[in-house]
Amino acid sequence: MHSARAGHGRARRAADGLNMTQALSIALSKGRILEEGLPLLARAGITPAEDPLSSRKLVLATNLPDVRLVIIRAADVPTYVQFGAADLGIAGKDVLMEYEGDGLYELMDLKIARCRLMVAEPANLAARDDPKLWTRVRVATKYVNLTRRHFAAKGIQTDIIKLYGSMELAPLVGLSDRIVDLVSSGNTLKANGLVEVEHIADVSAWLVANKASMKMKHARLKALVDRLAQAVG
Ligand code: ADP
Ligand code: MG
Predict the structure, then answer these.
(1) Number of the ligand closest to the Cα of 142
(2) Which stretches of the chain are assigned E, i.e. beta strand?
(3) Where are the domains of the chain?
């Protein structure tokens, strides 16, 4: 009895020790999120040990001994965080709207990588088109789930063509007249003869957290999240 209790105590101390030394990880993607995220992390006092833009490493140490960065594809960030493979993540609202898991806390808007989700179509079609009259639309997009939801909420049926990028090409080659895509300056749309016909959502990058981590590593995560909140301003 006595020794069993002592053993249990040892096991628990060992587990605490493991937790204490386990680094907190922040998952984020190369490209826009990293470009705008690095200055934000720097303002929060977090700098990677080597330049993530040139390094081929996927796990990067930082100046904080218990914080590391995990570099993954943008659309994978919610998955890593939901399954606890990363404690925190930085993901665009577009990616979060598209993701259908539910194991995440959306902690705060980081106000970086701002753009908007739009329905776009060729300018010559838009001239005689009225979105209020749509009953069924064919749409090319990488955002299959959010596109279906957006149109279903308005009673519009969709034939969705799943793409992995360059949605602007679809109308030019007759794949679909309409696309759902991100727009920031609008230059890419314009260069391809497309115009925005419907606004779906404003997009920016959010800080997300694994639910279990927020309980199990609460103090350390809260300190990190507070630093980021200050950096956002
Ligand atoms: P990928 O092409 O692999 O999706 P990006 O770096 O282009 O990677 O996009 C990652 C995230 O950055 C998107 O999910 C979105 O939230 C944001 N983003 C993408 N394009 C823009 C843009 N033009 N302006 C601002 N933010 C953007
Ligand atoms: Mg892109």
Answers:
(1) 1
(2) 24-28, 59-61, 67-71, 88-92, 104-109, 115-122, 136-141, 157-162, 178-183, 194-203, 205-210
(3) 2-113+204-232, 115-203
CA-proximal residue: ligand 1, atom 11 (nearest): 92
Which CATH architecture best describes the domain 115-203?
A: 3-Layer(aba) Sandwich (3.40)
Question: Atom 16 (ligand 1): residue with closest C-alpha?
Answer: 92
Atom of ligand 1 nearest to the CA of 205: 16
Topology at the third CATH level for domain 2-113+204-232:
D-Maltodextrin-Binding Protein; domain 2 (3.40.190)
Does this model's pTM top 0.85? yes
Ligand 1 within 6 A of CB of 111: no
- Residue-wise pLDDT tens digits, 40-59: 999 999 999 999 989 999 99
Grade residue 10 by pLDDT with cuts at 50, 70 and 90. low
Summarised one tens digit per residue, pLDDT across range 27-36 is 999 999 999 9
Ligand 1 in reach of 29 Cβ (< 6 A): yes
